[in-house]
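Q: Joint fold for the lines below.
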Amino acid sequence: MLTPDLWQPIRLTLELAGLTTVLLLIIGTPIAWWLARSTSLLKEVVATVVALPLVLPPTVLGFYLLIILGPDGLGGMFGGLVGVRTFAFTFEGLVFGSVLYSMPFVVQPIRNSFEAIGNRPLEVAATLRASPLNRFITVALPMAKPGFLTGAVLGFAHTVGEFGVILMIGGNIPGKTKVLSVAIYDFVETLQWQKAHILSAGMLVFAFLVILSVSLLARRSGQRTF
Amino acid sequence: MYSTQPTIDVILKGQLGAFQLNINFQTPMQGVTALFGPSGCGKTSVLRSIAGLQRIPGVIKVGDALWQDSANFLPPHKRPIGYVFQEASLFQHMSVRKNLNYGLKRAKLPQLSIQFDEVVELLGLSRLVDRHPEHLSGGERQRVSIGRALLSQPRLLLMDEPLSALDRMAKDEILPYFEALHSQLDIPIIFVSHDITEVERLADYLVTLKEGQVISTGPLNQALTDPDLPFGRHRDSAAVLPATVLRKEEDGIAILDVLGTEILVIGPTLEVGQKVRVRIAAHDVSLTKEHPGHSSILNLLPVRIVGIEPVGTAEVNVRLALVQQNGFDFIARISKRSLNALHLQTGETVIAQIKGVSFLTTK
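A: Joint structure:
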């Protein structure tokens, strides 16, 4: 039943979402930690920038990303170093865009979890001779586990569901940038309703499972994420 | 007396919320020092500053180690302290054993002076080590947190109202462990308290704070009987002195040695050699000019009147010192009428009849 034109976008989507999630956990953790702990006024500005994709139309984000990734932007500049003219319409470009686009969905739950820990456990660890880095690794990270799980699930799911940004910066190149959501659009446009049905129903089940699992995670850890 | 022994020196000067903190005290680096004062007097901030959890300008010296002055600030994880918070604050993501080992693993000492098994024994934790913090009672959790602090091999143990979050029963359950700590481990302890009964029971040395200032520093009984401090004027004020059980008699009377004087108490549960504290409540002391002969009162002591201060409108505190016995000071709370009827004067020698001497111990 899963012909290559169905299977390829699914695989590409999973690759994109997986890679994006891993990158976001790496980049998002220090940002979330800083947002949770800092008292500086600058943190409100950073928090706002991180949250922008929640409010902006994906086309706006996509438009600016196109300019940044394109030959005249940073993409062209850094692309020149590795012999690439542009990062627009590439898988790497999609990863870059997805990281920005899904960032609030990863940073926010992790930040909430860090904030929920409070100061006390870290003070306790300090009085037990743990250095600041050691406190972070042995106390903050394990205690914030529910936030990391929720952030990872939401970041992954949100990247899977991405459409507007992809269309703007990725186009529709099979095996390179043609992800699930674009494929569905494509099948509908070309009146291949049955294939659209298969992918859409799959997405529906996936979305249901994601939200359910996040709710169950929140319930288990006693924290609210929605 | 303390000048040749190592001391803990704390000087702190800074704005703390609404009031000015201006702290300067020295306390011996042995035994138990209580930082006593009403809520909001700054005592917790002082303790946190000693730990390095808070930074208020000043000087903190522990023995010959300088932890803070105008140019230096040793971060908390480099100070050899143990800190027991008001709430046990166990790491919820670790078992009791892992909690206990957290500080032990990080104690950078070639040789451990406090062993895991020793702490488990001392604090009665053997049943608890393989459990998870969320399945412990409040008292059990606090015992684990004390054990965790001890196993980090501290040179100084700091405790911030470690009993106040516990109910009466949990307090009674945990107090014996505190007393064991005191008598079995040679670690100086500074603890914060606003509860005078805790202080009477545990402290050797008392630093009294009021609105960010130190109003007294000295041995416990000296503060309790000081006319310039509020303790003596309380309804249930008392003198508290260290004692050792000398003998026990058939009828349940125990003879205690209190600073060289024999005091009789009803103490069928006491054991010879046991160290206890005796508490002489001011209301239980009456005065007479002549020896009453036969009396039901067990303890009749010759005393000199050191001072007389009014308490309220109808009563006075008569401060007493045992004749030829340095340090045995206590107070008799009597009515003004009796004072006048007996014509009591400062400097006079009378007989103190102590109706009840209670001893503070739980074992």
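Q: Anything notable?
A: The radius of gyration of chain B is 22 Å. Chain B is about 20% helix and 35% strand.
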